[in-house]
What does this fold into?
Amino acid sequence: MSGVASEHLTDVTLDDVLGALATSKRDCFTTYDECADLADKARELRDALRVLAADLRERHNVVGRLTSSALDRLSESMDSLARKAEEMRTESLHAAESVEHAHDEMHDAYKPVQQAAADAGLAMPSARVHNEG
It folds into this structure.
């Protein structure tokens, strides 16, 4: 941009930032969906482990303390994993909402100024500090 002092130049544009925020929001929603799948799979695995433990006890006479204990721990781990995935799912939704809010605030605060500068034929809007006082 000719006529603009170098200290006012940057490689980052408003559109770049808005695009990055939009991408982050999509990533948050992807994580939200993936966490739901993870929680479902953990519960399915927990249920399968319980069925396996019952089958080993009832049909195969595998009633050892170590085997039962190991299957119980695995089942409990899947419960814990499902709970953590649900917590992550909730946090991902909150993150998506926060990113969307930041995007909207930034867009609303800076896009009109950017457009007004372009409409006035300016290379860029002046900094607020130049207009205060």
